[in-house]
Specification:
Helix content of chain A: 40-55%
Distance between the termini of chain A: 78 Å
Shape of chain A: elongated
Order of helices and strands of chain A: HHHHEHEHEHEEHEHEHEHEHEHEE
Number of strands of chain A: 12
Oligomer: homodimer
Chain lengths: 341, 341
DNA sequence: GTCATGATGTAAAACGTTTTTGCTAAGCTA
DNA sequence: TAGCTTAGCAAAAACGTTTTACATCATGAC
């Protein structure tokens, strides 16, 4: 099988009767070559089926043309969409995307970070966990443009882009209050995550702006098991509320499911609102009122920062979310006397 | 910033007072060096913070240590899980995963295939679309170990791994029939996809084995919009069935939603079954009866084939799915006289 | 006629590894 | 003592590009 070795640039050069450098220039167009020569080289390259070796190019150019993304769980529907949009964004720049899913394991997180470093990634997108090693990230960020997305790493001074979680939480509270709800419970997300904390705190603060208190509060991981458990828990513990604000759509859907099973109808007896606007929010029954994160813009901004790589002080980009009102939130039947008790 | 250039192996060699080759050998352990020398090299490398450049290593070793995965839509929950499991599997081999999401666009599919080829991937996993270019894939497969997953490309003679769609469909039919259903409709997936076709044909055949005919049949893309539309359509067109077998969980969930909105209760008036067992199947209300694909094993087998790369005739691996009975399927109220008409 | 200039091309260096080959000294056999 | 193996290390080739530094020649300005 010696004959089907891939042709290299020297094969092309030989066949075209010119030097390697001329071949390179003819192919890349970085320097002028005589049109006739150029045509000949191109033709020969085509005939031979020459394809430049990107690895060799990377070595000399010091550009791997690869960006890496590190995240705790790609099956989280928000992250899935984000990955898709990032991939689309970097692809238009001729870059590839290498993914690292740590599964919330800090050891694997460290391994991926090291791997990204060794592979000389051109940029890194990091969706941190609570355990993300600030020191390691900061060290790597000195050599590789790095932007942290969605959640903060405490102490991080580099680029950061995220949706305005606070604003989203406020929209949700305002929406429910305007519908007439006064007893609102909160099933917040993992309090170890800055995004979940921000939503939780903002919800609470906005409630108090309206002169209200959380009717009940609970926290949950963003996993299906825990979501179901905590949803059941909050419905059991306190029953005198007419609406639930969930930390994300997964939690909201869990609340809906558990409520139904308990004979509480949504939205009749209980309004439920989520966060993220994952694809299933629209499909679910009832369709979920939620806050839509501008995922595509987050992806676009993140890759933009990556490629511009100012090097100056950390830039913070906060993107505005949008309230999507669907069927899971309605006015309470009788605010003073909820039906499901 | 000249001082924080990354140290190379020659820096280490100089600092340790040995040759480059000795340094390389001491580091990699591929050839014996005197223990004392080895220790010195290791110590110096550590002090300097030396990290080998994987790109250079790739160039000489002709191994990119990267595998690529090409798929039509990563936001499809089945594929998301698959990607996660593949990533985990290749990571244990020290390999990275580069993703390509074609968004069902054949032009982008071709571009990705070319990019994977140029980057000298060590292996390729392909989840094809109806438009996947057999010629291109076959050509690339001559140089890069390639395995096609989940759906067939007609004419493909290489490695292939998939769940046994036929068996899954049969389980579903048997399950519904054993519950007492005799009028079963089918909302099949995209008929351009071999997997969806296989499920559809097997469902039909098994029904006929039981002496039954499809009460209604319809096809849908695996997108939310079309799913909703086709679900509504099939419920409108014919109402004399007591169960629906959907092409996947997304479609099943769409049927559930549309049915509820139309005042048809699931599973009271209508049983619904899906396929894939995506995470939401369990969370939904009612929890979805479905066929669980052995995603993790599919991922494991696919990467195994990739790395073993027999080179012989194409190997076919068919993995057995599992019936997961949940709440969305029950015995029909009155088989002869469905309640929802 | 000389000299700068621009167009075109080549040779060689560089990128950072791994691997092959060669060299030296020491140990062993006969 | 000659010959042979082996351990340990070094030198250099190789991987396939891009880029830099020259070389050549024609052109036009003065």
């Amino acid at each position: 099988m010696a004959e089907n070795k891939r042709p290299t640039i020297v094969d092309v050069a030989k066949a075209a009767g010119v030097s390697i450098s001329t071949t390179s220039n003819a192919l890349s167009g970085v320097r002028r070559v005589r049109p006739e020569t150029r045509r000949r080289v191109l033709k020969v390259a085509d005939q031979l089926g020459y394809e430049p070796n990107l690895i060799a190019r990377s070595l000399v150019g010091k550009r791997s043309s690869l960006v890496g993304i590190l995240m705790p769980d790609i099956t989280d529907n928000f992250l899935t969409t984000f990955v898709r949009d990032v991939e689309r964004a970097v692809a238009t720049q001729g870059l590839g995307l290498m993914i690292g899913d740590s599964g919330n394991d800090s050891q694997r997180e460290e391994r991926y970070l090291r791997a990204f470093h060794d592979r000389r990634m051109e940029g890194l997108l990091i969706i941190p966990t609570a355990a993300t090693d600030l020191g390691q990230v900061t060290a790597i960020a000195k050599e590789i443009p790095t932007v942290v997305v969605d959640r903060e790493i405490s102490g991080w001074t580099g680029d950061f882009v995220s949706c305005d979680h606070r604003a989203g939480a406020e929209m949700l509270v305002d929406h429910l209050v305007s519908l007439g709800h006064t007893r609102i419970a909160q099933l917040a997300g993992d309090k170890a995550l800055s995004s979940a904390r921000a939503r939780h705190a903002a919800t609470r603060a906005r409630l108090s702006d309206h002169g209200l208190l959380s009717a009940a509060e609970s926290f949950s991981q963003f996993t299906i098991e825990d979501a179901k458990e905590q949803a059941a828990e909050i419905l059991r513990r306190a029953a005198d509320f007419t609406a639930v604000i969930a930390g994300d759509d997964l939690l909201a859907l869990a609340v809906v499911g558990v409520a139904h099973r308990a004979g509480i109808s949504v939205p009749g007896d209980l309004s439920v609102a989520g966060f993220d606007d994952i694809p299933f929010a629209e499909l679910a029954w009832p369709a979920l009122t939620t806050i839509r994160q501008p995922v595509e813009r987050i992806a676009a901004e993140a890759t933009r920062l990556l490629l511009e790589s100012a090097g100056g002080p950390g830039r913070h980009v906060l993107l505005q979310p949008e309230l999507i009102v669907r069927d899971s939130t309605v006015a309470p039947r009788d605010p003073a006397n909820p039906a499901h008790t």
